Amino acid sequence: MSTATDRPTPARNSLPRDAWVNFKRWSRKAVRNPTAFFLEIVVGVFSLLLFSAVFGDVGEFALAQAGYADVDYLTYLVPAVFMQATMGSAFTSGVGLVGDLESGMFEKVTATPMGWTAVLLGKAAADLLRILVQLLVVLALAVALGASVETGVAGVVGIAAVSLLVGLLFMSVANILGVLVRDEEAINAASMLFMFPLLFLSPAFIPVASDIEWLARLNPVTYGVDAIRALVLGEDVLTVLEVSRFGGIYDTLVPAVAVLVGLNVVFGAIAVWVLGRASSVDAA
């Protein structure tokens, strides 16, 4: 005769377990509907080809004026295309959340005992994997066209890490907006509102002019671009801050990564709080 003590004990929720469950759910969703994923890759490839053709002559002139005469514009352009591709894919994360809100899936998740940190981590991990594949395709094309990464394989790993930090930051922003506006068209419009002003107010396409340097200093994309460019060129390229404590390439990498990590902590915490608050309202 069985007793209550013979019954299997249900597995307890844990942060890694819940994050893994959410990672699998969002990864399966991307695999079942790969159109958006392939379009993101096409946009990244198209941007690399288009910008190098359109801005090539102007870019070479601007680089010569800024002391980068020995740098090929295609190589200089790689961080810009990475930032554009990363930001575009990150805002797709917000669109996915709005889809959950509209389909009722969000309410079902709020009924589970999962913590919102695990929900956001699992979703972010799936989105970051998608961004990583996209960036590797764009990087392979850039190298095939003649771009080079002076820091080698370690630099490529660093470039991926910096891109993912930027992607995670804008995923948090997109998810916050997704909960607040609950409208896919608004998220798509917001992605354009964020992407192009931030890219053009950074050293993404050409070195920053001195009269807008203070704006570039407040722009998170500046730090992503400069960190990736330092890894591509193998030298210190940070111009919006005066840092000479670490030496060489690390005078760019250390402050740039520190700024991106700090922003991720702030906006990640806000995203978890907003999702938790929305779940309380929807469950009421």
Descriptive notes:
The protein is built from 11 helices and no strands. The N and C termini lie far apart (42 Å). 40% of the residues are buried. Helix 2 crosses helix 6 (116-145), helix 4 (73-103) packs antiparallel against helix 6 and helix 7 (152-181) packs across helix 8. The protein has helices at residues 15-32, 35-54, 56-65, 73-103, 105-110, 116-145, 152-181, 184-200, 213-217, 220-233, 250-283. By secondary structure, the protein is mainly alpha-helical.
Q: Calculate the terminal CA-CA distance, rounded to whole Å.
A: 42 Å
Can you count the helices?
11
Shape, per Cα inertia axes: globular
Strand content: under 5%
Number of strands: 0
**Helix content estimate:** over 70%
Q: Give the integer mean of the pLDDT values.
A: 84
- Stretches with pLDDT under 50, minimum 5 residues: 1-5
Q: What characterizes the major β-sheet?
A: none
Structural class per helix/strand content? mainly alpha
Rg calc? 21 Å
Could you give the order of the helices and strands?
Answer: HHHHHHHHHHH
